[in-house]
């Protein structure tokens, strides 16, 4: 297939690009606005691959999106481009409305116009896969069952609301126009190339530098964690084998509190690169909770695992060890970000 993939220089998008180039014969037309969290370096060998083509464009630019479809004639779309940091959505929700809602609408319309003029066989094969988040479902209590494909939507942050709106648009284009869409919702991702504002890289890099490790509230908020390479594999399975109109919940079966995640990172770093000043747990600092901080997200991925014959390969300890090792081996990348473009110290918990 020729896949038009949006946000392919972002954290999850670049993992999907790498996975496609390494494990398939598919080609990738990568559309990315190249905002603060995008990195061409994260494409790794895909940058030089003849099966990868990068277009610097904004998904809200209708003319650019129509031109991309007309020029590259994709067989499928994987839509990952999004503003995704909850704290940033609280400070500036307008960008999230524009990119996540308006951008998805523009892309859907460009896809629909292109798809409607395809021949019968190509039209039947075409897919529009929209990648979303578990945050659209709202918050769980400590004893509530995990989210499933049947969970009602109840978004609590501007970020979650913008993604929920995008999900609804995608499903409406399936039911109203027949566009063969797929929606997947995932838990918190972690792994190589994640921008340093998110929980795991922020804590890792602060710990390496001997800086405070900020934890919201008492660190009791819980998330389910999924190694990004496992997610990339699952997303390709959805694209290749999912049923049009279907929803797929992708989770890691690794629910932990934020404090447990921070303590685990400290323990692993103490083992890998001991700090002469002592155990890094000494650096943990509890800070004022953010507004509307959801208590718990967790997905039951059983239906998706059965439908697509997929399960994550990494448990949390293995995934974290590989992630920490990657950050240790790639200091130049994150040190440049920390010293220049990125100066924030807030704790991020969104995927």
Task: Please give a structural write-up.
With 351 residues, this protein is an alpha/beta fold. Helix content is 42%, strand content 16%. The protein has a domain at 2-193 and 225-253 and 295-313: Rossmann fold (3-Layer(aba) Sandwich). The protein has helices spanning 11-23, 62-72, 86-91, 93-116, 120-125, 158-177, 199-208, 228-241, 258-272, 302-308, 316-329, 331-339; strands spanning 2-6, 27-32, 52-56, 76-79, 127-133, 181-186, 188-190, 213-216, 222-227, 247-250, 255-257, 284-287. The strands form three sheets. It has a seven-stranded parallel sheet with strand order 3-2-1-4-5-6-10, with helices on both faces. Strand 5 (127-133), helix 6 and strand 6 (181-186) form a beta-alpha-beta unit. Helix 2 (62-72) runs parallel beside helix 4 (93-116) and helix 7 (199-208) packs parallel to helix 9.
CATH domain class of the domain at 2-193 and 225-253 and 295-313: Alpha Beta
**Main beta sheet: strand number and arrangement?**
7 strands, parallel
Strand residue content: 15-25%
Mean pLDDT: 95
Main sheet strand line-up: 3-2-1-4-5-6-10
Residue share in helix = 40-55%
CATH homologous superfamily identity of the domain at 2-193 and 225-253 and 295-313? NAD(P)-binding Rossmann-like Domain
Low-confidence stretches: 343-351
- The appropriate CATH architecture of the domain at 2-193 and 225-253 and 295-313 is 3-Layer(aba) Sandwich
The strand count comes to 12
Radius of gyration, taken over Cα atoms and rounded to an integer in Å: 20 Å
**Helix-and-strand structural type:** alpha/beta
- The CA-CA distance between the termini, in Å, is 27 Å
Indicate the CATH topology of the domain at 2-193 and 225-253 and 295-313: Rossmann fold
What form results from the Cα inertia axes? globular
Order of helices and strands: EHEEHEHHHEHEEHEEHEEHEHHH
Note the total helix count: 12
């Amino acid at each position: 297939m020729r896949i038009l993939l949006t946000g392919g220089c972002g954290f999850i998008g670049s993992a999907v690009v790498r996975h496609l180039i390494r494990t398939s014969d598919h080609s990738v037309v990568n559309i990315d606005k190249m905002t603060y969290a995008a990195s061409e370096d994260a494409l790794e060998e895909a940058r030089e691959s003849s099966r990868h083509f990068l277009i610097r464009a904004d998904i809200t630019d209708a003319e650019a999106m129509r031109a991309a479809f007309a020029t590259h004639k994709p067989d499928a779309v994987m839509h990952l481009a999004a503003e995704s940091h909850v704290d940033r959505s609280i400070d500036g929700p307008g960008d999230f409305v524009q990119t996540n809602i308006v951008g998805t609408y523009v892309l859907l319309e460009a896809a629909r116009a292109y798809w409607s003029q395809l021949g019968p066989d190509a039209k039947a094969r075409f897919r529009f896969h929209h990648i979303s988040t578990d945050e659209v479902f709202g918050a769980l209590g400590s004893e509530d069952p995990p989210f499933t494909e049947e969970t009602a939507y109840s978004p609590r942050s501007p970020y979650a609301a913008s993604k929920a709106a995008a999900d609804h648009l995608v499903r409406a284009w399936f039911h109203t126009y027949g566009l063969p869409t797929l929606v997947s919702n995932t838990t918190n991702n972690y792994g190589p190339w994640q921008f340093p504002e998110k929980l795991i890289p922020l804590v890792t890099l602060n710990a390496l530098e001997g800086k405070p490790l900020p934890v919201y509230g008492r660190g009791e908020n819980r998330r389910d964690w999924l190694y990004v390479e496992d997610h990339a594999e699952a997303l390709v399975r959805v694209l290749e084998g999912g049923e049009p109109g279907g929803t797929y919940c992708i989770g890691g079966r690794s629910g932990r509190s934020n404090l447990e995640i921070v303590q685990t990172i400290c323990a692993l770093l103490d083992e890998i690169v001991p700090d002469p000043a002592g155990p890094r747990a000494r650096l943990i600092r509890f800070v004022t909770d953010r507004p509307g901080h959801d208590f718990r997200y967790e997905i039951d991925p059983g239906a998706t695992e059965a439908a697509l014959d997929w399960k994550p390969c990494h448990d949390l300890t293995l995934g974290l060890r590989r992630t920490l090792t990657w950050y240790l081996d790639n200091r130049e990348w994150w040190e440049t970000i920390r010293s220049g473009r990125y100066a924030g110290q807030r704790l991020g918990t969104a995927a």
